[in-house]
Amino acid sequence: MPQVGEIKIVRVKETRKHIWVKCPICQEERWMQERNFIRGGSTGICLSCYNKGEKAKEMRQRARQFKPRIVKNGVKDKMGYILIRLQPDDFFYPMVGKDGYVREHRLVMAKYLGRNLHLWEAVHHKNHIRDDNRKENLQLISIDSHNAFTRQEQRIEYLEKLLREHSIKF
Q1: For the chain, which domains are there?
Q2: CA distance 9 to 167
């Protein structure tokens, strides 16, 4: 049996050090990645004890307070997207998440194409309004392209803001 504080090197794609820690609450001992122990300022508390703690209770309570808004076609989530509930016999049912809902803009694009969307396909709102799900406003691109596109748009907005602040007309 290892001693508390003992360090062990484990090979998983790269060399990682693990440290043997003891939970100060339940006294359970286990291996933990050393970088997480040091970087996170961890106290060595195990997951089950952490989940019983005050911070976890507060996070669960905050999550319960969120009530999705009901809109004409479905429900609106925290991020502003409209969610549609699909029945298991629906052709597009494979696109739903664990909760049985699919984002409306993905459903609109899938119906337009006549097929289910792949996980690596993203639907971009051209005007950046998340509940404007008209076909003319939607564009199908890969997730990688969408991320690059979004970063580029954010950079342009940032530069335009700088120009406005310095009263430079473009």
Answers
A1: 7-63 (no CATH), 69-165 (3.90.75)
A2: 57
C-alpha 15, offset from chain centre: 28
Question: According to the model, what pLDDT value does residue 62 have?
Answer: 67
Contact in structure between 22 and 3 (CB atoms under 8 Å) = no
Is the four-CA dihedral 159, 160, 162, 167 of positive or negative sign?
positive
d(Cα 83, Cα 136) in Å, to the nearest integer? 19
Residue 149 has pLDDT above 90, yes or no: no
* Dist CA 153 CA 128 (whole Å): 11
CB count within 10 Å of CB 57 equals 11
Q: Which amino acid is at 114?
A: G
> How far, in Å, CA of 37 to CA of 12, rounded?
18
In the predicted model, is pLDDT for residue 40 greater than 60?
no
Beta strands in 13-164 (DSSP E): 14-22, 29-33, 69-70, 75-76, 82-85, 101-103, 121-125, 138-142
Check residue 167 and give its pLDDT. 76
Higher pLDDT, 41 or 73: 73
Torsion of CA 13, 14, 17, 18, to 10 degrees: -10
